[in-house]
Design goal:
The chain is built from 9 helices and 9 strands. The chain is an alpha+beta fold and 263 residues long. α1 packs antiparallel against α2 (115-129), α4 crosses α5 (175-186) and α7 (212-218) crosses α8. It is globular, with a radius of gyration of 19 Å. InterPro entries: Cupin_2, Homeodomain-like_sf, HTH_AraC, HTH_AraC-typ_CS, RmlC-like_jellyroll, RmlC_Cupin_sf, Tscrpt_reg_AraC-type_HTH.
């Protein structure tokens, strides 16, 4: 009698070079994508999710998405049937990964265990996924043309510190209108949205090995200490510790956890 597998694939590891992209596609299965090093960007028509090292992204079946690597990224993937959805989500999300789930992912994506051991590991993975926390690493992209113009301007230069009123003059809309639209379309105020954009940009730069001071300036923070404070408050770790875990020069196998106090 054939065995029913909870996780549908065997070992699934894929190294990605800095800047390497996986073009937009979708699957008829659910995926749990886990970067052991580097950082993975997951983009859909609705927004962008940044997946730091030792965190994971749940990508539901039938959701078109693309990947982009920031830094040398080792992507590991668990694949589940579309009917197996322990998170009960129909949208991508970034998840906390505790020590046990991390070890299970490593075991299932490094080698193909013997059937009884594999079945146990798969069940543990499902049990842990039912209890994991969602993390706020999502940036919804506005649909309104005027907001999209402003969003592209800031994405190209996160250090741009113009007010919404000043940006609105270039987009042809009043500040009050834009403020209302930002909240309606992204669920955030404009300052919150810009802060999230800057944090995502910072995550990407740190994963490529850029120094903390350089990243602070590039992302529009007045001082490195201000950047460190905002980063720590948002992610529970420092930019330096995150960089040490995310940045893996070619030919090394650095896999430190930047969030040991959170596990």
């Amino acid at each position: 009698m054939s065995e029913i597998r909870l996780v549908l694939a065997g070992p699934t590891r894929r190294p990605l070079l800095p800047g390497e992209q996986v073009e937009r596609h979708d699957h008829d299965v659910n995926q749990l994508v886990y970067p052991l090093s580097g950082m993975l960007e997951v983009a859909t028509s609705a927004g962008v999710w940044m997946v730091p090292p030792h965190r994971a992204a749940w990508i539901p079946a039938a959701v078109p998405h693309a990947h982009r690597a920031h830094g040398h990224t080792e992507m590991r993937t668990l694949i589940f049937a579309a009917t197996t959805n322990p998170l009960h989500l129909d949208r991508p999300t970034v998840l906390a990964v505790d020590t046990l789930l991390r070890e299970v992912i490593a075991a299932l994506t490094t080698e193909d265990p013997e059937p009884r051991q594999r079945r146990t590991l798969e069940q543990v993975a499902l049990d842990r996924l039912r209890t994991v926390d969602e993390l706020p690493f999502r940036l919804l992209w506005p649909r309104d043309d005027r907001l999209a113009t402003i969003a592209r301007t800031l994405a190209d230069n996160p250090a741009d510190d113009r007010t919404l009123a000043a940006l609105g003059r270039t987009a042809g809309a009043a500040e009050r209108t834009l403020s209302r639209l930002f909240r309606a379309e992204t669920g955030m105020t404009f300052p919150q949205w810009r802060a999230q954009l800057r944090l995502q940009h910072a995550l990407a730069l740190l994963a490529t090995g850029e120094p903390v001071t350089t990243v602070a300036t590039a992302c529009g923070f007045a001082t490195p200490s201000a950047f460190i404070e905002v980063f720590r408050k948002a992610l529970g770790t420092t930019p330096g510790r995150y960089r040490a875990a995310a940045f893996r020069p070619s030919g090394t196998n650095r896999t430190e956890d930047p969030y040991p106090d959170l596990l």
